[in-house]
Every structure is written in C-alpha cells, then in structure tokens.
Amino acid sequence: MPASPPLRPYPGDLLEHLASLLALARRLEVDARSAFDAVAAELHVDQSVLRRRIQTLDAHLGGPLLEGRGARLTVSARGARAVEVAGRVVADLARLDEELAGAGGIAPVRIGCTGTVTTELLPGAIEKARARWPDLEVRIRRAGARRGRELLDRGEIDFAVMRAADPPDGLATQRLCRDRMWVAIPEDHPLATGRRLELRAIAREPLVSFGPTSFTRRRVMDRLAPLGGRVHVEVEGKQAALRWVQLGLGIAFLSLVPGHRPPAPGVVLRDVTRRFPTAWFWAAWRPVRTLREPERLILDALERPGSESTRRPATG
Q1: Other CB atoms closer than 10 Å to residue 230's CB: what's the count?
Q2: How is residue 46 annotated by DSSP?
Q3: What is the pTM of this model?
Q4: What secondary structure does DSSP assign to 209-270, as a single string?
C-alpha cells in the first residue's frame, strides 16, 4: 500500500471545524441572513467561535470558503469543494465508529425521532428488538424533519423518523403510519358533545399549543389562523397541554399515532384528522446504506399492523 502524503498540522479540532462548515453550508441554503446565528445556537457556541472556526479553515485551505454578505452570503467554489470532501470524511468516520463499536458484538442502533413516535411507539419497538438481542444498545436523538436530515447527512444516526405529507427527497424511506389529529376539549364544554365540530368554532376558543417550531402547531394554525384563531398558551409536551385543558383554560390539538389515546380525565378527545391535510410518519435513511437486521426489526415494529398505513415498500 503506497504511503500517504503527510498531513499539514491543523491549529484546532479539524473534525469539529469541518462539521461546523457542513452545518453552516446547509443553513445557508435555507436562510443566509440568519445562518451564523442559527448554526451557533445549534452547536451551542457563541457566534464569534463559529466565525473563528470558518476563518481557521479559510487559512488552512488557502482561501475563503464563503463569499457575499447578508442575504447574499453563500458558499464559494472553494467552499463547495471543501463541503463535498468534509461530508465524505464525516460520514466515513461515523461508519468507522459504528463498525468498531460493533466489533465485539452488535453495533448500536442510532435513531433520530419525533417526540410523538419516541413517546408512543418507540419503547415497544425497542423492547421487541431487545428480546432478540438482549445486549443491543439504542441511542435516541430528539429530532424533527430538518434536524433528522442533518443528522443523517453527518452520519450521526442510522435512520430518522420524520413527519411529512410526502416521502423526504433523496432518501430511502418506509412509510410507518398516519399522523392523526385530535382536539382536546374540557368535558363540560359545549364543543365536547356537538354532533359536528366546526374549526371556526374552535378558532374562537383560547388555544393551548406548542412552540413556534412545532409541526403540529404549524399544521393547526395554517387552518385556524385564517379563521381568527391564535395561541394563548405555549407549553412543552402533550401532558402539559392536556393539563391546561383539564383545568378548563383552553383547547388543544394533539398529534397521535393510530390506536394511541393518552389518559386525560375530564377531557374529551375528538378525532379531526379529516379536517387537515394528510401527514405521515416516515422512516428515512441514506440510500447508500443497507439497514441492519436490528434496524429492520425496529422499523417493522414501528409500522402499525392494521392501521390505515397500508404497508408500502421501502424506496430508495
């Protein structure tokens, strides 16, 4: 095997800086003006630290990796090449870590997952996998669709569970189950028992919902905001939302997988799925990767038999 040329010393953590460049390049495609702020928050560093990392890479690689300013900030030609190579490096190192972790047994299963599936389906799926492989290690990252794709791109997870109307582009996918929408109403409220539940009537009530980045909140407000609806109380998690409803202080919309109904004394849950555009939970992974047996078993357990998902073959 021919000897590789010696690497020039790098004044810092090269892998960390390359990962920062990858995150910044992805963000620039979405919103250039706020890219540094958003990525610095994602990496839990000050913006000045992120800028120094990019400047250090600039100096090491012989030129600026970014060009333009403000809304016109973008990756330069040199930067595009660096991003391409950095993506391969990070993914290869993640694969190496996975292989070495499994050298003495089965490698960990790394999953990026929405809160709904993490709470309602994933524990049972992991239990089934552990029944077959008792020593199986499972690592879970809380991630919505955008975050899940970023973790896949960086090779930090094996598959992600995403919520969307259509399968994510550029990934191998398996449709799991439909995202059902329920409205939680205090049991003594007139809307709890009416034969036909109108969204216009709900929009007049105080709404309890999740933070602005919540997929469920965006889905609900796309329909209710034009009718005058607005969020009065922001909470974290379904149980917090249900508690406000139990106290008679508002009405909440909840995303639930088929067959799951959280216990909520004093609350009536009404299925309003048909009033909203269809959304599904999808498992997604990099097309270059073949799912291992434990991962396949977990996905098959996540897919709800008998639900309206009507099993759809994996694509990719």
Answers
A1: 11
A2: -
A3: 0.61
A4: E--TT-HHHHHHHHHHGGGT--EEEE-SSHHHHHHHHHTTS-EEEEEE-TT-----TTEEEE
Q: What does the pLDDT look like over 212-251, one tens digit per residue?
A: 888 899 999 999 999 999 999 999 888 899 999 999 999 9
Domain 14-97: CATH class, spelled out: mainly alpha
- Long-range CB contacts for residues 77-81, cutoff 8 Å, separation at least 24: 79/21, 79/25
Could you tell me how far CA 186 lies from the centroid of its own chain?
31
Q: For the chain, how many residues are written? A: 316
Mean pLDDT calculated for residue range 183-192: 94
- Region 268-276: mean pLDDT is 93
Identify the CATH assignment for 180-275 out of 3.40.1260.10, 3.90.79.10, 3.40.190.10, 3.30.1330.20: 3.40.190.10
Tell me the C-alpha distance between 35 and 234, whole Å.
26
Distance CA 286, CA 97 (A): 17
Enclosing H/E stretch for 175: strand 172-178
Contacts of 249 (CB under 8 A, 6+ apart): 206, 208, 233
Residues 6+ apart with CB under 8 A from 185: 191, 192, 245, 251, 267, 268, 269, 270
